[in-house]
Amino acid sequence: MNTEAMYATMKPWRLFFVVALPGMVSMFAMSVYSIAEGIFIGQLLGESAFAAINIAFPLVMINFSVADLIGVGASVPISISLGKNEHDNANNIFTCSVILIFLASVLMGVVLSAAAAPLSRMMGADDVLLDISVRYLRTYALCSPLCAIFFAMDNYLRISGYVKTSMVINIFCNLLTIALLWLFLGVLGFDVVGSALATCISMCACAIVAMIPFVKNRALLKFTKPRFSAAMVKQIAACGSPSFLSNISGRITAILMNITLMTLGVKAFGEGGGPTAVAVYAVLMYSSDLCWPLLYGISDSLAPAIGYNWGAENYDRVKKIVKCGYLGTTVIGLLSTSILFFFPDVVASMFANAEDVRLLTEATHAIRLFCFAYLFRWFVVVSQGFLSAIEKPKFATVMSVSTAMVFPVLLIALLYPFGLDGVWLNFTGVNALAAILAIILLRRVQKEIRERERRKAITE
User: How far is the C-alpha of 369 from the C-alpha of 242, rounded, in Å?
Assistant: First the structure.
């Protein structure tokens, strides 16, 4: 069955298993390198390196945020254009977006490399952590263009029906990363630069492989002579703004979080406690890589099918596909909460060296508070993905900015008197508030869908 027929006619639950399961595996595979990186750094390089990378990593993600804006933003109008049988328009958007991603990534890489030191200071790095953070950042900046295209190609492969190909490429990328981490850190004794190099080399190699179906005209999407227009760029920016603003807002929040942790860590543990608190936060982020990719894998994999059927005005099928997404992520959310709650010591020991007793003890406690976020996270992820897929950028942007910055900053202030426990509980509070916001926005979308169905019935 070709891609368009699959999106239009395959039974929703069969479609779910055909696209969502490989998507889950693919997204989880993409996070495996992060988990492996956390294990290697925590066990081999220690608490300071762990804290320094946690300070630098938000800036790495900002480096990719503009490319993500273009890649995600282009995916929505591409899917809708395919649903309307406007293949020439879809190919033009695809071609222009790849060019824009490359140019934006070159610019972001230059800026990040030049401003690495002051940006690391702004993120809360002290004299001990500054040099480590700067070298880690500049390594990523050097490889920025191809790394950014790797992320975008994953979206375009799924739209073209290459779901399993995307999964295989991501699995290979992570296996290569893990092998290089072992070589650079375990054998050659590199520091954090070895970690960044391992990731960048793998992404660059796989970006080239992912381009092959498009370069050889084997995919549904094809390169064509680019026709840029202000309207197209505006549409891409509007559709990609939820993801972009979520990334930027999340990194601003990370800056505030690191500053807060450096202060509260000293209060909780005394002199030198700041890096420990930041390292605990890093353990939480790495532990979340065990769970969140499965949620995002489902949401991202179903987005092209949702967008296609929305463009084809098949609203009943849109609702059925989204329902499958909600039910699938409910299971993942409950399992994630249970595993993190009942086995926090096992998870913490993956990333914290046994000699770092203070870090290990606090991380175990923090994971048990943090895990309840997944009781709400599944609903937030699917709702935001649905709003983006049906070209509701304003609603999706409100959700993403609220979840990434407004709610976290508000709760940092409200929960500050509770010390570090207030920070660990921040995540649960944020997702609970985001779930309430999602319900409000979805009710408005339901009214619009009913009105669209009524108009369609009249015209038919």
Answer: 28
Question: E-assigned strands of 244-395?
Answer: none
Phi, psi of 93 (to 5 degrees): -60, -45
> Residue 136 and residue 191: Cα distance in Å, rounded?
9
CA gyration radius, the chain: 22
Sign, Cα dihedral of 144, 145, 146, 148: positive
pLDDT in tens, the chain (460 residues): 567 788 888 898 998 888 888 878 777 776 776 787 778 887 787 777 777 787 777 778 777 777 878 888 888 888 888 888 888 888 899 899 989 988 888 888 888 888 888 877 776 666 777 888 888 888 888 888 888 888 778 778 877 777 788 878 888 888 898 899 899 988 888 888 888 889 889 989 988 998 888 888 887 888 889 898 888 888 888 877 777 777 777 777 877 888 898 889 888 888 778 888 888 988 888 888 778 888 988 988 888 889 888 888 898 999 999 999 999 999 999 999 999 999 999 999 888 877 778 889 999 999 999 999 999 999 999 998 898 888 787 888 888 889 888 999 999 999 999 999 999 999 999 999 999 999 999 999 999 888 888 888 887 6
Nearest to 61 by CA among 280, 263, 236, 285: 285
Token pair recorded at residue 432:
């609970």
* Residue reference for tokens 């096992």: 346
Cβ neighbour number for residue 431 with a 10 Å cutoff = 24
pTM value? 0.72
In three-state secondary structure terms, 375 is: helix
Contacts of 226 (CB under 8 A, 6+ apart): 92, 95, 96, 99
Q: What is the DSSP letter of 220?
A: S
